[in-house]
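The protein record reproduced below.
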Amino acid sequence: MASLGHVLPQTLHFADPLPLRSGAQLRDYTLVYETYGRLNADKSNAVLVCHALNASHHVAGTYEGQDKSEGWWDNLIGPGKPLDTDRFFVIGINNPGSCFGSTGPMHQNAETGRVYGADFPVVTVQDWVDAQARVLDHLGIAQLAGVLGGSLGGMQALDWSLRYPERMRHCIAIATAPSLSAQNIAFNEVARRAIITDPDFHGGHFYQHGVVPKRGLRVARMIGHITYLSDDVMEEKFGRQMRAAELGYTTQDIEFQIESYLRYQGDKFSEYFDANTYLLITRALDYFDPASEHGGDLSRTFASARCKYLLASFTTDWRFSPARSREIVKALLDNKRDVSYAEIAAPHGHDAFLLDDPRYHGVLKAYFARMAGEFQ
């Protein structure tokens, strides 16, 4: 399988306000995106890839002059890979509110001349989908071959099938859920409190103080990372292994290898991720619940769906468990929709959707090959 090689991000500016679910509007905003492969003559081979919490528009390929710059789903997307860019035109869009180029809390509010900070408006999955639709309008793509996403990206893929049922032929939702459980919301809230209570947070206006709430970001990432891994993987990689043969002299030392790993992940995250973005995105996760508009009835929610579906889950993913994917499958079957479902025995927990599991990639490769047959 060949590499995509070097890729370049592109930027679109929108002067028309984007209406948000909160009742606010996002004015004079910019969205960053990347594309891979070629759009065919009738523009029927486009696949939109929706990103999860700490990812971006940089889905595949590398940046020239930057080491370790591979896109976050590079193992899945490219020539000869499951989502084959010799067949498909793939689009990755950075959502508003992010910290990777699209207009977000660290940017200037054109109306006030000040950095948004904590005043950036609340955004939802539905708002992101509407913003993505505007990018597709600019590209002249009336209907997508498919929308693909994992985790929070899978929620966006599902929402696409509800908000724009005529604009897509396939929805591929991986390791996702129709809404967060109370336990998931609880994890998100603990992570947010770690950030908000950091003395360097300054109510979300830390930019003007020249500081970053790194302590809060570190703890937030450590909490999140625990939920992305399975107990089996943690046991296999770290177990109860200690860094030294003897006990430490203080309870504040890093003694176990798992502690060292979590602190490393937290330190790395605090260097590149924005605290206000973390709050915005985890809230968008919490808010997503399309069935709430239909009395909590998921079958009624999907009554308007028109596309074909592939859902995949992983047996050790306890954050977005297979049971949640099966809820979606049942709702689709209740509406006699065309749905395929794969429940993959993988030891990696929630992170499995990003990894090279051959069974998982085999399922996707077969599904995308079938999709390609529709326009070739």
User: Anything to note?
Assistant: The radius of gyration is 21 Å.
